[in-house]
Each structure stands twice: as structure tokens, then as C-alpha cells.
Specification:
With about 400 residues, this protein is of the alpha/beta class. The protein is about 30% helix and about 20% strand. Strands 1, 2, 3, 4, 5, 6, 7, 8, 9 and 10 form a 10-stranded mixed sheet that branches. Helix 8 links the parallel strand 11 and strand 12. Helix 8 packs parallel to helix 12.
Length: about 400
């Protein structure tokens, strides 16, 4: 009995000690929205932080997306299509204070406040529940290329890589030593694209750090927390031109390719009747492919040499960045969901864009939160898809 009491006593002491340690372990304790107003309020009177602002107007006016008459009824979806393609607005901080730290996909200031997108809030960020850690000191300048969605392909192309243009334009590429992409294993596409842009592997930082000089910027996303529940993931014209000119170009031309981009190993937006879709499209010369496991150069070759690209909405269709003008695009959405990011990329690239709304699958996510609607599976009516292809002028091969 005495031995049991001793074990219980020791366990209790250990728990008390751990609780005390956890109580002393710091967490983030505030938020700075990186708008001009927010930056000025937080850092306008400080000599160790310089504030730069950007506004790059888009000159591209998109054609409205094309669709079958029966899909016109989805008016709550159609309101998502932008009448004008987005501008590039951003604030950039040039910080000469090594007490600012990069960790948990964010930059925190010397008061442990998270610096992030102005339309977000501290309560929406996972970092609020995490303990802060010791950060490795790096000599030189570190630029922020991270995001709460660590190295997710769509976010990488839409909101992270384009930051390079503002950093290089303002400070010169030669004056930036490292790029913080977040804490974790670097994805192949991140390393491959950075290498293509002239950033060496040893310059990529994927661990918590601090530096003599920190640079941080955020593209302003038009996030709508209201009834439309938009994610604001549109590509702006400046970002499109920067990526189009500096990333991969299609090689080994292939004429007349018709592609259906299959979803890979995913848990949401699955094609529920893919065999029926194949039966309808293979006779028209469509090849069914997945980009899973491909390099970005292979994706550029695939999309850049295509005549027609069809597929269910997903990050793989962000490779429309590599498509040539005039490419016919057919994007398929779940019954109760629409998101405009691939349409905007197609419009910037001069593609001929069409969309198709999937069939109801026994329940509706209309009015539910964005994540549930986004992840809904898709059932395609083959006859309806063939009708849309006919309307798009896609003749039998």
C-alpha cells in the first residue's frame, strides 16, 4: 500500500510540475491585421519597422463564364463570379528587430502578436492554441512566404509565391538571404518552383527562426464571412503575369490533347460516377489523367499542350496557369458549391471557360458553412456534360 501511495504521489508531483511548465510556456497573445491602417496603428511610431504599401490595378476584364441554361438557376453561385478581376493590394513590413519570430506558419512581433491578413481574426488562426518555441537565429534577411495552409498547392500559387514579386521589386532579389515557408516538411512542388525562380534549397527555411531583418507581406484576399462565404482566392493580374513569365513553360508540343483531370487520393469532392463519365468522353478522344505524383514541369507540359481541359473543381486545375490562350475549360462543381479561383486564372490566360453544376446526391449543403459545401462529392450527368461540350464546340475527335 505504501508503495502504491508513493507511485501516486510521484505521478501527482509530475503532473503539477508539467502544469507549471505549461503555464510558463508563452503563447501568441494578440493580432495585427496587415492593412495600412492596422500597420500604422501597431508600428507607425517605431523606428525599427518600415511600412510599404502597394496597389496594382488589373487591366483585364473577363468574359462571363459559359454554362447550360439549366445551371442559371444557381443564382447564389453566380454572385461569386467577379465582374472585374481583382487588383493587387498589399502592405509590406521591413523589420529590423530580431525579437520578431517566424513560427507556426506566421510572423509574430516582439509583443507576441500574430501579423496576418486583415480580414482574418485571431480566433480563426490555429496558432492561438499552440505554444511558442525557441527560434534559431539566422544572420541576414528572411522573407515570409508562409500561410496557414502549409504548402497547399492552390494557396502556394495564389497567395504565397506572388509575394516574391513585391519583395524583389522593393528590395532586390540579391538582398534577401532566406525565405520562410512554414514549419514542416517541404513539399516537392514548393522546392521545385522556388528552384525554378532562382532560390536555392539552402535558402528555404522550414523551421522556427528569427533574423536581423524580417520582411512580411500579405496579399489582400476578399474574404466574405457573410452569406456568400467566399474564400477570396482569386489570382490577380500582377501575380498571374509574374508566375506565367517566371515559372515553367510547356515543352515537347503535343497537338490536340483532350484531358479530363481526375481527382487524386482525396476525401472530398470525389467523382461518384467516374466510369459513366469515361464511357461518355473516351469516344470523344478524352484522356483521363491525374496530376498526383507529377512534377510541376510535367504539369506545365500537360496543361500547356492541351486543347480541352475538363475536371472537377480542385487545386489541380490551378495548373490552368500553364494553359495557352483559347484552351477550352470545363470545370465541374458540386451541386451546392462554387468557387471562382480557376475561372479567374482561365480568364487571365485567355481560355474559353465553361462550368457545369453536378447533380443532387440526396442531401443539400446549401446554406451550410463553406468547408462542408466545398468538400461535397460530385455526380455528373453524362448527357448534360455532352450537351455542354457540344455548346463549347468540342466535336468528336
Amino acid at each position: 500500500m505504501k508503495k502504491v501511495k508513493q507511485v501516486v504521489w510521484n505521478a501527482r508531483k509530475k503532473l503539477v510540475f508539467q502544469a507549471k511548465v505549461l503555464c510558463r510556456t508563452p503563447r501568441a497573445k494578440g493580432f495585427v491585421g496587415l492593412s495600412e491602417e492596422g500597420a500604422q496603428a501597431a508600428y507607425g511610431s517605431r523606428s525599427d519597422v518600415m511600412i510599404h504599401t502597394f496597389s496594382r490595378k488589373s487591366e483585364c476584364t473577363p468574359f462571363p463564364p459559359k454554362h447550360l441554361p439549366e445551371d442559371e438557376i444557381f443564382s447564389f453561385l453566380l454572385s461569386s463570379f467577379p465582374e472585374k478581376l481583382p487588383d493587387y493590394d498589399a502592405v509590406l513590413l521591413d523589420i529590423r528587430n530580431p525579437e520578431f519570430t517566424f513560427q507556426h506558419q506566421h510572423l509574430l512581433d516582439d509583443e507576441r502578436r500574430v501579423i496576418y491578413e486583415p480580414k482574418m481574426s485571431f480566433e480563426q488562426l490555429p496558432i492561438r492554441e499552440k505554444f511558442l518555441v525557441e527560434c534559431k537565429k539566422l544572420n541576414g534577411t528572411v522573407a515570409y512566404l508562409a500561410n496557414t495552409m502549409f504548402c497547399q498547392y492552390a494557396h502556394w500559387l495564389q497567395t504565397q509565391l506572388p509575394l516574391l514579386a513585391s519583395y524583389w521589386e522593393t528590395f532586390g532579389k540579391e538582398n534577401i538571404d532566406y525565405y520562410y515557408i512554414g514549419d514542416g516538411e517541404t513539399k516537392d512542388f514548393a522546392e521545385e518552383s522556388l528552384l525554378q525562380l532562382g532560390i536555392r534549397k539552402e535558402q528555404i527555411v522550414n523551421f522556427p527562426c528569427r533574423a536581423d531583418r524580417s520582411l512580411v507581406s500579405m496579399k489582400f484576399r476578399d474574404i466574405d464571412p457573410g452569406p456568400a462565404m467566399r474564400a477570396g482566392m482569386e489570382m490577380d493580374e500582377k501575380s498571374y503575369r509574374f508566375l506565367k513569365e517566371n515559372l515553367f513553360q510547356a515543352e515537347a508540343p503535343i497537338a490536340g490533347k483532350r484531358l479530363f483531370i481526375q481527382r487524386g487520393n482525396v476525401s472530398g469532392r470525389r467523382e461518384l460516377n467516374l466510369p459513366e463519365v469515361k464511357e461518355a468522353l473516351v469516344p470523344l478522344g478524352f484522356e483521363f489523367v491525374t496530376t498526383q505524383g507529377m512534377t510541376m514541369q510535367q504539369e506545365a507540359d500537360l496543361f500547356g499542350n492541351a486543347e480541352v481541359i475538363a475536371g472537377v473543381h480542385g487545386a489541380a486545375l490551378h495548373n490552368l496557369l500553364f494553359a495557352k490562350p483559347g484552351t477550352k475549360v470545363i470545370e465541374i462543381f458540386p451541386y451546392d458549391y462554387f468557387e471562382e479561383s480557376n475561372y479567374v486564372i482561365a480568364a487571365l490566360g485567355g481560355c474559353d471557360y465553361h462550368y457545369l453544376i453536378g447533380e443532387p446526391i440526396g442531401h443539400s449543403f446549401k446554406g451550410k458553412d463553406l468547408l462542408k459545401r466545398n468538400r461535397a462529392d460530385v455526380r455528373v450527368d453524362p448527357a448534360k456534360l455532352l450537351h455542354l461540350l457540344e455548346m463549347a464546340g468540342i466535336d468528336p475527335a
